Amino acid sequence: MEITDLFSGGFLNAVDAKGRVSLPSQFRSRIAARAKKAALAGNEIENPKLLRVAKHERYTALEAYDDTYMVQRLKEIDARVAAMPDDVDKYEMLEDLRFDALGATSEVTYDDAGRMVLSAGLRQSAQITDLAFFMGGGLSIQIWDPRRLMEERANSPRVIAALQSALTEKGITL
Description:
Blueprint: E1 10-14, E2 20-22, H1 25-40, E3 50-55, E4 62-65, H2 67-82, H3 90-103, E5 106-109, E6 115-117, H4 120-126, E7 131-136, E8 141-144, H5 146-152, H6 157-170
Antiparallel strand pairs: 1-7, 2-6, 3-4, 3-5, 4-8, 7-8
Helix pairs in contact: 2-3
């Protein structure tokens, strides 16, 4: 199933001391639409209000995605391993790639209002404190501490402009 409901935009939300934060409604709508299309295609999503969240591979941020995308990622891993030369231990490679994709994630659920809890470990890995900037990247979502985003993505003027707009909208100066 090709995913056509893509995450886009940037949204700023407060994070409390226990790590509670609200997943933006625009992203919840996309996740619900993806789950509905998956079900219609015969791929029922067990918990459509579950995100898989992990430390981003390159940035001091988190990456989050739903199980619709996880299924697609696993199929891509299978295809990549199948295309490898015969002298590669494909079983071992497949196992390693699947554990990288699944084992390094935390399962985070959200309620009907979008409230979810980012564990202390997740927040620490992304240096998220009191604010979280959710940024849509098509198939997945990045979750940033705004200060880290300004430092690490300083050469991305459109990303910085989106963050500045969200900060201004909320009346926040960093």
